[in-house]
Amino acid sequence: MTDTQTINYEKILANEADEDTKITFTPRELKFFALELKDMIAAGEFDIAKALHSARFYAEMARRTENIKAGHYVEFTAEEWEKFVNEKTV
Questions:
Q1: pLDDT at position 43, please?
Q2: What does the pLDDT read at residue 48?
Q3: Per the CB 3.0–4.6 Å rule, which of 45, 58, 66, 81 could disulfide with 76?
Q4: What are phi and psi of 50, to 5 degrees?
Q5: Are the C-beta atoms of 54 and 36 separated by less than 8 Å?
Q6: Cα 7 off chain centre by
Q7: Does residue 4 surpass a pLDDT of 80?
Q8: Measured between alpha carbons, how far is 1 from 13 in angstroms, rounded to an integer?
Q9: Could you tell me the pLDDT band of residue 1, with boundaries at 50, 70 and 90?
Protein backbone atom coordinates (compact mmCIF):
# COMPACT_ATOMS: atom_id res chain seq x y z
CA MET A 1 0.00 0.00 0.00
CA THR A 2 1.04 3.52 -0.65
CA ASP A 3 1.83 6.10 2.00
CA THR A 4 0.13 8.91 0.10
CA GLN A 5 -3.10 10.30 1.42
CA THR A 6 -5.95 12.04 -0.29
CA ILE A 7 -8.06 12.75 2.77
CA ASN A 8 -10.05 15.90 2.42
CA TYR A 9 -12.43 16.01 5.33
CA GLU A 10 -13.35 19.69 5.38
CA LYS A 11 -16.88 18.82 4.14
CA ILE A 12 -17.30 16.38 7.02
CA LEU A 13 -16.12 18.94 9.56
CA ALA A 14 -18.56 21.46 8.12
CA ASN A 15 -21.38 18.86 8.08
CA GLU A 16 -21.57 19.21 4.29
CA ALA A 17 -20.69 15.60 3.51
CA ASP A 18 -22.97 13.56 1.31
CA GLU A 19 -22.97 9.99 0.05
CA ASP A 20 -20.43 10.92 -2.65
CA THR A 21 -17.85 12.25 -0.19
CA LYS A 22 -14.89 9.93 -0.36
CA ILE A 23 -12.22 9.50 2.29
CA THR A 24 -9.03 7.60 1.64
CA PHE A 25 -6.97 6.40 4.61
CA THR A 26 -3.37 5.39 4.71
CA PRO A 27 -2.92 2.08 6.53
CA ARG A 28 -1.73 3.90 9.65
CA GLU A 29 -4.62 6.37 9.57
CA LEU A 30 -7.12 3.55 9.19
CA LYS A 31 -5.63 1.82 12.23
CA PHE A 32 -5.96 4.95 14.35
CA PHE A 33 -9.44 5.70 12.95
CA ALA A 34 -10.68 2.26 13.97
CA LEU A 35 -9.12 2.61 17.44
CA GLU A 36 -10.65 6.05 17.90
CA LEU A 37 -14.11 4.80 16.89
CA LYS A 38 -13.76 1.84 19.25
CA ASP A 39 -12.91 4.18 22.13
CA MET A 40 -15.80 6.52 21.24
CA ILE A 41 -18.32 3.71 21.10
CA ALA A 42 -17.08 2.38 24.45
CA ALA A 43 -17.56 5.87 25.90
CA GLY A 44 -21.06 6.13 24.43
CA GLU A 45 -20.27 8.83 21.91
CA PHE A 46 -19.79 8.96 18.16
CA ASP A 47 -18.20 11.83 16.24
CA ILE A 48 -16.84 10.98 12.79
CA ALA A 49 -15.18 14.37 12.28
CA LYS A 50 -13.35 14.07 15.60
CA ALA A 51 -12.32 10.48 14.79
CA LEU A 52 -10.97 11.57 11.39
CA HIS A 53 -9.05 14.45 12.91
CA SER A 54 -7.62 12.23 15.66
CA ALA A 55 -6.64 9.51 13.18
CA ARG A 56 -4.69 11.98 11.05
CA PHE A 57 -3.07 13.54 14.13
CA TYR A 58 -2.00 10.21 15.67
CA ALA A 59 -0.73 8.91 12.33
CA GLU A 60 1.39 12.04 11.87
CA MET A 61 2.75 11.79 15.40
CA ALA A 62 3.67 8.15 14.81
CA ARG A 63 5.44 9.10 11.57
CA ARG A 64 7.38 11.87 13.28
CA THR A 65 8.32 9.57 16.17
CA GLU A 66 9.68 7.03 13.69
CA ASN A 67 11.71 9.77 11.99
CA ILE A 68 13.19 10.85 15.31
CA LYS A 69 14.07 7.25 16.24
CA ALA A 70 15.72 6.87 12.82
CA GLY A 71 17.87 9.93 13.53
CA HIS A 72 16.14 12.30 11.12
CA TYR A 73 16.15 15.46 13.18
CA VAL A 74 18.23 18.55 13.89
CA GLU A 75 19.73 19.28 17.30
CA PHE A 76 20.25 22.76 18.70
CA THR A 77 22.25 23.88 21.71
CA ALA A 78 20.40 26.27 24.01
CA GLU A 79 22.39 29.17 22.58
CA GLU A 80 21.72 28.13 18.98
CA TRP A 81 18.00 27.79 19.69
CA GLU A 82 17.83 31.20 21.35
CA LYS A 83 19.62 32.78 18.40
CA PHE A 84 17.27 31.03 15.99
CA VAL A 85 14.16 32.17 17.87
CA ASN A 86 15.41 35.73 18.18
CA GLU A 87 16.18 35.92 14.45
CA LYS A 88 12.67 34.73 13.60
CA THR A 89 10.93 37.22 15.88
CA VAL A 90 12.81 40.30 14.69
A1: 96
A2: 84
A3: 81
A4: -65, -40
A5: yes
A6: 11
A7: no
A8: 27
A9: very low
2-17 average pLDDT score? 55
Instruction: Give the CA-trace dihedral at 79, 83, 85, 87, to 10 degrees.
Output: 180
The length of the chain is 90
Task: Choose among 27, 19, 29: nearest CA to 52.
Answer: 29
What's the Cα-to-Cα distance from 63 to each of 3, 28, 52, 54, rounded to whole Å?
11, 9, 17, 14
Q: What is the DSSP letter of 64?
A: H
pTM value is: 0.62
CB 73 within 8 A of CB 67: yes
